[in-house]
């Protein structure tokens, strides 16, 4: 099946520095995607490009397989609606806010009114039409912004940190609304968030963004530092406390992440070809059902995930000395 | 002291009695200044919007230029306009000197820079999300511009009022290109200057009070709108 949206080799640079580099990203029709990453990771830039508001410095966007560059951008802007972080409501009534996009599409007044009412109903704000926008609470304003987008019946709804200024109850409400929209109307939804739990609660697929690049897994065992030694077949990354061996890198590396599943725990130094082996002590143990999450202090605190079975077989206890080993190739770099 | 008190009493009689001479002068003042402000707004707001929303070489100097024009001396505008409109000037054949039209032109020149400068400031102070939001909802460039202007409406109204405030109170240009002809180009400010020189205190004072009242009302409205712009 042709994906709805495909980004290929997309980069965005400002004054020569690249803030976003996406080799390939596929968005399928009807999916909910979470874009997860810390502030400044490039989430907003990625959403703005997907919403056709920002032109990438290089690369191609495909819409149902067709190169968007060859077509009228304005046309696509009508299929995708972005709800920006802290949505801006126009200084007028809720009704006029929701009707705004319909007016730009020259929908006749009667139909406009019906769509406004329907959209407000979908976000649970029936009867709010005559209220002034600036009198609403954060959660209500966010829902008006969603209603304003929904009225346009977009194929894709993009939301940038939709729950940043919303209280706990409002967050649940919003997530429920998004799920319903996806199920009922098959709207493809992309939500940027820095809340990993929200990303997983909502989405079919979570995309991890870090320093403008897509990472394979959530950012765990994330360390900041720099490369201090470059050999032909091995680079050494210094976190300030430990040195981690990496395969040779083409780009500048400022961060590394070590997936907890890729770390082996043993009582004796592990005799393998793996380049990274550290001695440490277990400082924390958490039961996660089939797995056990250990924190091993090797100078840096390293989270390690092992099966409950091997945890029991090895008779690991809090404070016990262990060795942790991982391959240089399993270290993710940014 | 007594003659001042007499003047105030006389002024009160003229205002309360709706003296026709006084009110003709007031109405002409308002007509000329409102016309000039209206035209200055139609030119100044779009111009200010274009300047603040576009990047072009000499943008900074252009903004500085309009800010400098804020302190344009009214008599200098009067002088230049006089030399253009006088019979021997390039626009002499139009016979505009000493007409209300000449006064409207003069006040237009005075009001436009204020409206341009304050529009630039108003648009630059606008929340950038207003523009982005309009775009995300499918507005084209023209509708986006209208939306941003509409969102800035309080600050823009304040700009227009500031322009009106400048021209309703000015004497220099009106005197030089209007000529202070009674019943034709005599407005509040020029009448006050003339009647005071003639010793007609009551008449001058009555106009003075009305002008003060207009100026105060404008300022109150201006501050109210400035406070509301956020």
Description:
The complex is a heterodimer of chains A (334) and B (230). Chain A has 334 residues and is α+β, with helices and mostly antiparallel strands. In chain A, 25% of the residues lie in helices and 34% in strands. Chain A has eight helices and 21 strands. Chain A has helices at 43-50, 73-77, 94-104, 109-122, 138-150, 168-185, 196-202, 308-313; strands at 5-14, 17-27, 32-36, 58-63, 66-67, 80-83, 156-160, 188-193, 205-210, 213-215, 222-224, 226-230, 235-238, 243-246, 255-257, 264-266, 276-288, 291-297, 301-307, 321-326, 332-333. In chain A, the strands form five sheets. In chain A, strands 6-7-8-3-9-10 form a six-stranded mixed beta sheet, sandwiched between helices. A five-stranded antiparallel beta sheet of chain A has the order 16-20-17-18-19. In chain A, strand 17 (276-288) and strand 18 form a beta hairpin. In chain A, helix 3 crosses helix 4, helix 3 (94-104) runs parallel beside helix 5 and helix 4 crosses helix 5. Chain A is elongated and about 75 Å long. Chain B has 230 residues and is an all-alpha fold. Chain B has a single domain (2-209), classed as MetI-like (MetI-like fold). Chain B has helices at residues 2-16, 20-53, 59-69, 74-85, 100-124, 128-136, 141-151, 153-168, 172-178, 188-198, 201-228. The A-B interface holds A 51, 53, 74, 77-78, 81-84, 86-88, 90-91, 100-101, 104-105, 148-149, 152 and B 127, 129-130, 132-140, 143, 147, 150-151.
């Amino acid at each position: 099946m042709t994906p709805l949206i495909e980004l290929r080799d997309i980069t965005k640079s400002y004054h020569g520095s690249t803030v976003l580099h996406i080799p390939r990203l596929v968005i399928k029709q009807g999916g909910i995607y979470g874009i997860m990453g810390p502030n400044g990771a490039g989430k907003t830039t990625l959403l703005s490009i997907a919403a056709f508001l920002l032109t990438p410095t290089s690369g191609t966007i495909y819409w149902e397989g067709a190169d968007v560059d060859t077509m009228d951008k304005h046309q696509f802007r009508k299929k995708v609606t972005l709800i920006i972080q802290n949505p801006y409501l126009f200084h007028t009534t809720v009704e006029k806010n929701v009707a705004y996009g319909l007016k730009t599409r020259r929908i006749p007044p009667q139909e406009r009114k019906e769509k406004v009412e329907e959209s407000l109903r979908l976000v649970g704000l029936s009867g709010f039409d005559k209220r002034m926008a600036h009198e609403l609470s954060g959660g209500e304003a966010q829902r008006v912004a969603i209603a304003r987008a929904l009225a346009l019946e977009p194929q894709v709804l993009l939301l940038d940190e939709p729950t940043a200024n919303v209280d706990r109850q409002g967050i649940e409400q919003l997530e429920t609304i998004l799920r319903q929209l996806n199920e009922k109307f098959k709207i493809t939804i992309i939500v940027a968030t820095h809340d990993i739990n929200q990303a997983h609660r909502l989405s079919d697929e979570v995309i991890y963004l870090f320093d403008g690049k897509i990472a394979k897994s959530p950012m765990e065992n994330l360390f900041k530092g720099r490369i201090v030694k470059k050999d032909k077949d091995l680079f050494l990354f210094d976190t300030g406390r430990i040195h981690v061996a990496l395969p040779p890198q083409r780009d500048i590396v400022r961060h590394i992440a070590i997936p907890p599943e890729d770390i082996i725990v043993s009582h004796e130094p592990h005799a393998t070809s793996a380049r990274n082996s550290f001695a440490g002590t277990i400082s924390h143990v958490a039961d996660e059902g089939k797995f056990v999450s250990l924190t091993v202090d090797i100078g840096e605190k390293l989270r390690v995930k092992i099966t409950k079975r091997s945890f029991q077989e090895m008779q690991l206890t809090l404070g016990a000395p262990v060795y942790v080993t991982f391959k240089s190739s399993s270290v993710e770099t940014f | 002291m007594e003659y001042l008190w007499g003047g105030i009493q006389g002024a009160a009689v003229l205002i309360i009695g709706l003296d026709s001479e006084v009110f003709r002068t007031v109405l002409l003042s308002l007509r000329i200044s409102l016309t000039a402000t209206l035209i200055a707004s139609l030119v100044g707001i779009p111009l200010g919007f274009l300047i603040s929303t576009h990047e072009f070489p000499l943008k900074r100097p252009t903004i500085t230029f309009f800010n400098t024009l804020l302190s344009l001396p009214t008599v200098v505008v009067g002088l230049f306009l006089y030399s253009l409109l006088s019979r021997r000037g390039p626009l002499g054949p139009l016979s505009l000197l000493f007409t209300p039209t000449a006064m409207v032109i003069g006040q237009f020149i005075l009001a436009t820079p204020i409206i341009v400068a304050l529009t630039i400031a108003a648009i630059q102070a606008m929340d950038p999300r207003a523009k982005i939001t309009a775009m995300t909802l499918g507005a084209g460039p023209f509708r986006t511009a209208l939306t941003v202007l509409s969102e800035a409406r309080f600050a823009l109204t304040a700009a227009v009022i500031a322009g009106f405030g400048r021209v309703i109170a000015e004497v220099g240009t009106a005197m030089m290109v209007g000529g202070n002809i009674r019943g034709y180009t005599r407005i509040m400010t020029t009448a006050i200057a003339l009647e005071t020189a003639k010793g007609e205190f009551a008449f001058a004072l009555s106009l003075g009070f009305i002008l003060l009242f207009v100026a105060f009302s404008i300022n109150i409205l201006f501050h109210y709108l400035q406070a509301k712009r956020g």
